[in-house]
Specification:
Structural class: mainly alpha
Distance between the termini: 19 Å
Number of helices: 7
Helix content: over 70%
Strand content: under 5%
Length: 100
């Protein structure tokens, strides 16, 4: 339950960041569908570190995702996948807590 709340908090932060920023990179993501479909695979620990970074610097959320080669949708999908696996969820939460 605690991990699901963490994931939900991150998703809300990302959505809030997306609504506040309008950069050329965000506007052009629909034209780069080939790049968007080949998202890098991140470990639960890497996702936890990224989530903590977004939590610390919400105004830079989209840039942090872009630096890892992810879109908001890809990050959300990865978080949902991690949340569905109890062991991966524990690893994510531990990495998140270490980096917050």
């Amino acid at each position: 339950m605690k991990n699901a709340l963490l994931a939900l908090t991150l998703l809300i932060a990302i959505v809030a960041c997306k609504n506040k920023t309008t950069t050329p990179a965000t506007a052009s993501t629909s034209g780069n569908t080939a790049v968007a479909t080949s998202a890098p695979t991140l470990t639960p620990e890497q996702l936890g570190e990224l989530g903590a970074s977004i939590h610390k610097h919400p105004s830079e959320g989209m840039k942090l995702l872009a630096d890892r080669g992810l879109t908001q949708e890809q990050f959300e999908r990865a978080i949902r996948q991690v949340s569905s696996d109890p062991e991966a969820s524990k690893r994510y939460a531990a990495a998140y807590k270490r980096n917050v």
